[in-house]
Amino acid sequence: MHIVIDGYNYIHRINGSAVQKGSSMDLLQRDFLEKCARYKKFRSIRITVVFDAYGSRSPGRHSENYRGIEVIYSKEGETADDVIIGWIRKRPASLYVVSSDRAIIDEAKSRGVTFLIPITFAEMLSSPAYEPDEEDDYPDAPRPKKGNPRRLPKKVRKAVKGINKL
Fold it and tell me: Nearest-CA neighbor of 108 among 85, 127, 79, 136?
């Protein structure tokens, strides 16, 4: 499974009020990438986040790795939408797209690619199943036992059964 996310589209949809209040886009971006890294830790999936670098002077695409998350910045004169639509056209198998842009959604529908809107993906990221537990901080800590506490252990039951046969 490979999830491709329109980064700024997600940030603006989920943190719209924070962006309007003048919050640092770098902080919002780092927070989003941290959430993606936590999600990836619990799922064996590939995540790619595409950010617009539309106003930049970079002649080519720039990519980096952030804690296992592939982060791609588009090149000069190219939008994240262009990059994601290109991915949809090349790799429709097991690709999931996260965006609310109409052009991306229409292309995904036409190619049979599964898409999610940012709000749905945000709910997945904030699910308690993917939040770190205290147990994650201490991997060698004893885990609570499972099963019926009133039932004797299997070895003891087997021994009792053997004794009863005598």
Answer: 85
- What's this model's pTM, rounded to 2 decimal places? 0.72
Looking at the chain, which runs of residues are DSSP E strands?
A: 2-6, 46-51, 62-66, 69-73, 95-98, 114-116
Contact status, residue 74 vs residue 61, Cβ threshold 8 Å: yes
Q: pLDDT tens digits for the chain (166 residues)?
A: 899 999 999 998 988 776 666 678 888 899 999 999 988 988 888 999 999 875 566 677 888 999 999 999 998 888 899 999 998 998 777 899 999 999 999 999 998 888 999 998 998 888 765 554 444 444 455 666 677 878 888 877 877 777 776 5
> How far is 144 from 140, CA to CA, in rounded Å?
12
- Per-residue burial over 11-50, b if 16 or more Cβ lie within 10 Å, else e, is bbbbbeebbeeeeeeeebbeebbebbebbbeeeeeebbbb
| Residue pair 52/8 in contact by the 8 Å Cβ criterion | yes
What letter would DSSP give residue 48? E
Class of the domain covering 2-138: alpha beta
Integer Cα distance of 67 and 34 in angstroms: 8
Residues 6+ apart with CB under 8 A from 129: 42
